[in-house]
Amino acid sequence: MNSDRVPAVIGQRIRQYRLNQDLTQEDLATLANVSLNAVKSAEGGKSTLPTYAAILQALGHIDNLLAAFPDEGVSPVQLLKSSTKQKQRASGKTRVQPADIGELDW
């Protein structure tokens, strides 16, 4: 999936979550403590991360958002290199090539 389509897909899923719970946009706005326009924008795929988080929290789906960013902890290699302190920044020695744009499996 093209990364430009991701916000639209998120918006569609938020709309479906809302409809599955038989909530109006106004009800969701109240539950999420955001404006009606914020809900409409989110469902249209044009919102901010804090707004998406508030809406997903209100819908009981915040874990879906958090699942996209699992906690990896400290690398075992990093632990071996320095058992006293956690790495704070990247060295920049590793060069990354852009990934092929493929279908997301979520």
Automatic annotation (TrEMBL):
Region described as Disordered: spans on this chain: 80-106
SMART domains in the cross-refs: HTH_XRE
InterPro entries: Cro/C1-type_HTH (IPR001387), Lambda_DNA-bd_dom_sf (IPR010982)
Domain HTH cro/C1-type: 14-65
Gene3D superfamilies in alphabetical order: lambda repressor-like DNA-binding domains (1.10.260.40)
CDD domains listed in its UniProt record: HTH_XRE
GO molecular function, one term: DNA binding
Name of this chain's protein: HTH cro/C1-type domain-containing protein
